[in-house]
Specification:
This protein is α/β, with parallel strands linked by helices. The chain is built from 20 helices and 21 strands. It has a nine-stranded mixed sheet with strand order 5-4-1-8-9-10-11-12-13, sandwiched between helices. Helix 2 links the parallel strand 4 and strand 5. Helix 17 packs parallel to helix 18. The longest helix has 18 residues. The protein is elongated.
Length: 566
């Protein structure tokens, strides 16, 4: 039986979304042809519950639906999502709630109407009937789509039972002053904050001033969602905390706020995250949701979210002696076949110009955001320094964005002092040849060095020489990336950070599936941020995977993840 101490109790609306797409909204009296119509499950409460459940949280829903097909389908959906719906009552003779949604395909923005139906019958008595199941929960979430009587009762019961409360002030409406005492966290978006405070919210300073109004009324903590600017936390007597989000190309923003709150709630209740970490997770999950069409249909589950993150960290690699232009084109095609594309492709220097020509000739298919990485002194690390520098200069001239340099790891094993001096000298010279914004990654071949002492020494000289990343291996030896070596190398990256340098880590060779990727990311988050649950904060400037088989395996996992828990 699920642990109720980590339960999220959601009191809110269960609607069916009726979504129409068109190039623009019709003017009054005007009829326009639309391009598409879909139905989906919605209601802010149901959306937040589903997103939290998809991320592995224990969720209970309190609501009402009508005795119609929409109601029956809603209950079936909750069961499939793993949500406890014993307190979702069916009201015979009433329609279920519906939400006609109109999406502007040009901008991705939407307009929504709400017909509550049976939801309007939810009352304080229904909340009292659920008290025993509310008791012991970790978090209560309410919105303003339910009758205010039910919302107030839910917040009061939760406080009486020692449950943390979160009020999402959507849709915004005038609220009684007494409500704020029952809210531990209040979460409006900018328009809702403007309506509730009576103040403008166009800039961060205006948002801060408007937030002060609600704090003065009694709100304890205020989390304001800011769309593409992320979100912000406001508390009386403390400086605001703004948490940025990743920029993405939005296709449909419907439900983005609900995705944020579901992910935020799951982080708090399931993972025990701090508010800042939970806000960051909410931003990251919502950023995925807006890249797809639909509401709950667009919400990622934990498996898909992990796979998408890992894909964005891959240097998709082909370093075969028999590589051809056709083979490299296939490599690049795989890297950009779906969103998100990989961080980079990693190829021999002779193919750099070819890939850059693809990007120049077909920028929509081969975006410049896909970096072109190449290798020098590969794979033995024993070429003459003059040749290595010349190869680097030629690759940069051909358009390489990143250079992976192999140092002489055998010399390090044979004579540590000489090996360190030679490695640092070579790294400095190649660093000088990596002009402009070219990123330099140094391959230390950790599997050959074997001991923590040698791995640490190699990482430190690479950093001292001016590298941007330390990389485990070439993928051409028996032992490649291991968690043990990664721990030593990432710790070196953290120490460099304390000295004002941002050094990334690249695990190359041997990382083939989502579980292995998760293990490396959790290790990185634990060392860099002090919390393995903050793995979602790792980006391509901090972490890479060098691999050939990881991408297709993650694509398969991502494709099979729809609707599955993880």
């Amino acid at each position: 039986m699920p642990d109720s101490s980590n339960r999220i109790c959601v009191v809110g609306a269960c609607f069916t979304d009726l979504v129409t797409f068109s190039s623009r909204m019709p003017n009054p009296g005007e009829t326009l042809p639309g391009s598409k119509f879909i139905t989906g499950f919605g209601g802010k409460g149901a959306n937040q519950a589903v997103q939290a459940a998809r991320l592995g949280a224990n969720v209970m829903m309190i609501s009402k639906v009508g005795g119609d097909t929409f109601g029956a389908d809603t209950l079936k959906n909750f069961k499939e999502q793993g949500i406890d719906a014993k307190h979702v009552q069916v009201v015979e003779g009433e329609s279920s709630g519906v939400a006609p949604i109109f999406v502007n395909e040009t901008t991705g923005q939407n307009s929504i109407l709400i017909i509550p139906g049976a939801l309007d019958k939810l009352n304080a008595g229904d909340i009292e009937l659920a008290r025993n199941d509310i008791r012991g929960s970790k978090l209560m979430i309410c919105q303003l789509e339910c009758p205010l009587e039910a919302t107030m009762a839910a917040l009061k019961v939760a406080k009486e039972e020692g449950v943390t409360t979160l009020l999402n002030t959507a849709p915004a409406k005038p609220l009684p002053d007494e409500i704020w005492a029952f809210c531990d966290i209040v979460c409006p978006n900018e328009p809702e904050l403007q309506m509730l405070s009576g103040k403008p919210t166009s800039t961060d300073e205006e948002v801060k001033a408007a937030a002060e109004v609600l704090l003065h009324r009694g709100a304890k903590k205020l989390i304001v969602t800011l769309g593409e600017r992320g979100c912000a936390l406001f508390e009386t007597g403390k400086d605001p905390l703004f948490v940025a989000t990743k920029m993405v190309k939005a296709k449909d923003t419907t439900g983005a706020g609900d995705s944020f709150l579901g992910a935020f709630a799951a982080s708090i209740a399931k993972d025990g995250s701090s508010l800042e970490a939970a806000m960051s997770k909410g931003n990251a999950v919502a950023a995925v949701s807006v890249t797809r069409i639909g509401t709950q249909l667009s919400f990622p589950d934990a498996r898909e979210f992990l796979c998408r993150q890992a894909i964005g960290l891959i240097d998709h690699t082909s370093l075969g002696l028999d590589d051809t232009d056709d083979g490299i084109r296939a490599l690049v095609d795989a890297a950009v076949a779906e969103e998100p594309h990989t961080a980079a492709v990693c190829i021999y220097p002779k193919f750099v110009k070819f890939v850059r020509s693809l990007q120049k000739d077909q920028p929509e298919k081969y975006p410049r955001s896909l970096k072109v990485c190449t290798v020098v002194n590969f794979p033995t690390g024993q070429e003459a320094p003059e040749k290595v520098i010349a190869d680097t200069e030629a690759a940069v001239k051909d358009g390489a964005d990143e250079v992976d340099l192999v140092i002489d790891y055998n010399l390090l094993k044979k004579d540590l002092a000489k090996g360190k001096a030679a490695a640092e000298s070579l790294v400095k010279a190649v660093r000088a040849a990596c002009t402009g914004d070219v990123i330099l990654k140094v391959i230390i071949e950790s599997g050959e060095l074997q001991t923590d002492e040698l791995i640490k020494a190699a990482s430190e000289v690479a950093i001292a020489g001016g590298c941007d990343f330390v990389k485990t291996s070439t993928g051409k030896v028996k032992v490649n990336a291991t968690l043990e070596a990664a721990k030593v190398m990432i710790t070196c990256c953290k120490e460099a950070k304390s000295n004002g340098k941002t050094i990334g880590f690249k695990a190359a060779g041997g990382v083939r599936d989502a579980e292995q990727a998760r293990s490396f990311l959790e290790l990185g988050a634990e060392i860099l941020f002090g919390d393995k649950l903050r793995l979602h904060e790792i980006d391509s400037r901090l972490f890479r995977f060098g691999a050939s088989s990881l991408l297709p395996n993650l694509r398969k996992k991502e494709a099979s993840a729809a609707g599955a828990g993880y």
